[in-house]
Every structure is written in C-alpha cells, then in structure tokens.
Amino acid sequence: MSIAVRDVREHELDSVLALNNAAGPAILPLDSTRLRRFYANAEYFRVAERDGGLVGFLVGFGSDGDHDSSNFRWFREHLDRFFYIDRIVVASRRRGGGVGRAFYADVQSYAELRYPVLACEVFTEHDSDPARLFHGSFGFTEVGQHVMPATDQAQGVRASMLTKELCSYDWVREHYGEALPEASWLPQPRQQDRHSATGPGA
C-alpha cells in the first residue's frame, strides 16, 4: 500500500518515542520531555503511515527555531539560513521500502519554498556507510565534521555535517518574497501546540 506522510498528532507521541528508541545506535535516544519539546517547537514534525500503522517520523527546525542541539548550533555558526533535519527514523521492518525517500521528498518540498539550504548530520560511527550513501544519492555533501560535546546525550560522537542547496529557493523568493500564494498543494508549517510545552519539565 502507499505511504502517507502527515503531521504528527499528540496521541501518537508514545508510538514515536518507541520508534526512536528502538532505532539503534545511529539515532540519539529520546525521553518523553524532549519529545514534548519537539512537539511544541519543531517547525516540521511528520509521521509516515503505511498499512494503518506508523512506520517512521522526521523532525525539522528552521534556522531561527528554538532548538538546543549542538549540531544545530554548528550549522547556525556556519550558515546564514537553513532548514535542519534533526532526525529521521524508519521502523526496522520498513527500511528499504521507500519510507525514507518519501520523507526526504516531502521535507524538501516544504523547505525549498522557505530556505536556501537543507542541513543534517550522519554519525561517522555505527556502520554509517548506508546512511552516507542514502544522503549522497539525494545530493548532500559534507561541509565539515563536529564532535558532540558533553552536554549532548552522545558526547564524543563525531558527526559528518551535510548540506544540500535547494535550487528552487531563489526563484520562489524572486517571484513571491515571503508571501507565498494560497494553494491546496503547498506544504504548510505545522501548527505547533505551544500549550503542550507549558507543563512540568517542558
């Protein structure tokens, strides 16, 4: 059956957390508090649904977003304006089935209307060659490396910092500036649930 990519719903956060923490060493672990921060603050937080179940998710932040990742800060220090993919997770039983490519097509369609560069990182450890090949096939190139500091959950892990120029951005800005026209097919920013971040530990 087809893959449906859509905004996450609050009642799905437990399932998202389970997907993340079952993904293996290539994905940083999450706890419910941090996931709630993502839910409250991420500009892009979408899930993939197939055969009636969640099979993955992707979280992203614009360069002006409220995000405390050291990798995000690294990109802020090196780029003026960008869209940052914090993480993409695909359920192990669905890897190789097109879910990751569906996510990247969707997030690029969103980002290229608003940002000139798409940014992400891949850890250089934990058999990263498949992830590097995947990103290379989408046109990402390495622009540096960053060792995550002790404030992160995976301190000392080296990350390959990747970017992809979004060729549509200049044309969109030249013709529409910041005021995109209304069209049903245009991907829209999600409506962050700010209320969810006001509870304990948010």
Walk me through what this model shows.
The chain is α+β, with helices and mostly antiparallel strands and 202 residues long. It has one domain (4-179): Aminopeptidase (3-Layer(aba) Sandwich), CATH 3.40.630.30. 29% of the residues lie in helices and 25% in strands. It has helices at 13-21, 32-41, 70-78, 99-111, 129-137, 168-176; strands at residues 4-7, 44-50, 53-62, 83-90, 117-123, 141-147, 158-165.
List the uncertain runs.
194-202
CATH fold annotation: Aminopeptidase
Helix percent reads 25-40%
User: What is the helix/strand order?
Assistant: EHHEEHEHEHEEH
Kindly estimate the percentage of residues that lie in beta strands according to DSSP.
25-35%
- How many domains make up the 3D coordinates? 1
Identify the overall geometry.
globular
CATH class category label: Alpha Beta
Observed structural traits:
202 residues; alpha+beta; Aminopeptidase; 7-stranded mixed sheet; 29% helix; disordered C terminus; GNAT_dom; UCP028520; GNAT family N-acetyltransferase; Acyl_CoA_acyltransferase
Summarize the SSE layout with pairings.
Blueprint: E1 4-7, H1 13-21, H2 32-41, E2 44-50, E3 53-62, H3 70-78, E4 83-90, H4 99-111, E5 117-123, H5 129-137, E6 141-147, E7 158-165, H6 168-176
Parallel strand pairs: 4-5
Antiparallel strand pairs: 1-2, 2-3, 3-4, 5-7, 6-7
